[in-house]
Amino acid sequence: MSGITGLEFARLLPSRTLIIFTTAYPQFALDSYEVDAIDYLVKPISPERFSKAVEKAITHLSLLERSNDQFETIAENHVLIRADRRFYKIAFDQITHIEGLKDYVILYTFDSKYITWINLKNIHSKLPASIFLRVNKSFVINHKAITSFDNNTIYVGSLEIAIGKAYQKDFFLDYIGREQP
């Protein structure tokens, strides 16, 4: 793209646009969180990996379209949300991570996901800091759901979540009690 980068172009798009980056430059993946990209694919891209990214976008779109959800309350050990005209009580220990998408968040549990109309900053500020860690601009993670990590990535099962540079120091202090090894 001449004259403008993909990230600059993405900033010009309406906020509800779902973005999947395809590029030969892996070093800009963290920057894609600034525009809430759905995925970041590095060339060469296999058909399977491309399909996975498209499926993720379709899932997000379907959740957004049918969303009638509202964030209701946070209690001592659970959140209460409304989804599809029903209320769901979701225990903190069932939440693996929370993903922010503009003005929505998706709460992922071990077997389901729920979308609600609140931004990530607001929900994170109300959740217990002893359980939930903000690890980048788009993700909050239940520290009990972390299966492994390295200096730049957290693994929740097979899901890889990048640790944002601004969040690295706090992550290591909160999670292992000392600065980054």
Please provide a written account of the structure.
The structure is a single chain. The protein is an alpha+beta fold and 181 residues long. It has two domains: 1-65, Response regulator (Rossmann fold, 3-Layer(aba) Sandwich); 96-176, OB fold (Dihydrolipoamide Acetyltransferase, E2P) (Beta Barrel). 25% of the residues lie in helices and 33% in strands. Strands 8-7-6-10-9 form a five-stranded antiparallel sheet, with helices on both faces. The model has no long low-confidence stretch (mean pLDDT 85).
CATH architecture of the largest domain: Beta Barrel
Measured by DSSP, the beta-strand proportion falls in 25-35%
| SSE series | HEEHEEEEEEHEEEEEH
Supply the CATH superfamily name of the largest domain. Answer: LytTr DNA-binding domain
Number of structural domains: 2
Based on Cα principal axes, name the global outline.
globular
- Kindly provide the radius of gyration, computed on alpha-carbon positions and rounded to a whole number of angstroms: 17 Å
Structural class: alpha+beta
Average predicted local confidence, pLDDT: 85
Count of DSSP strands = 13
Widest beta sheet: strand line-up: 8-7-6-10-9
The major beta sheet can be summarized as: 5 strands, antiparallel
| CATH fold topology of the largest domain | OB fold (Dihydrolipoamide Acetyltransferase, E2P)
> What assembly state would you assign to the polypeptide chains in this entry?
single chain
As a percent range, the share of helical residues equals 10-25%
Question: Which spans of ≥5 residues are poorly predicted at pLDDT below 50?
Answer: none
CATH secondary-structure class of the largest domain = Mainly Beta
